[in-house]
Design goal:
With about 45 residues, the protein is mostly helical. It has one helix spanning about 5-35.
Length: about 45
């Protein structure tokens, strides 16, 4: 299959995969920061 598609396609695919992983990292970091904030109110989350 690799021979059927141009190298530019694979370069773009690798870059897109990297950007997806960076987006997931940012989301996880935001969730962790939210989790570390002190809780206020009477009902636990």
């Amino acid at each position: 299959m690799k021979a059927m598609l141009p190298e530019g396609f694979w370069q773009h695919l690798r870059a897109a995969r990297r950007e997806t992983l960076l987006a997931l990292r940012a989301a996880i970091d935001a969730w962790l920061e939210e989790e570390e904030k002190p809780r206020t109110g009477s009902h636990p989350s």
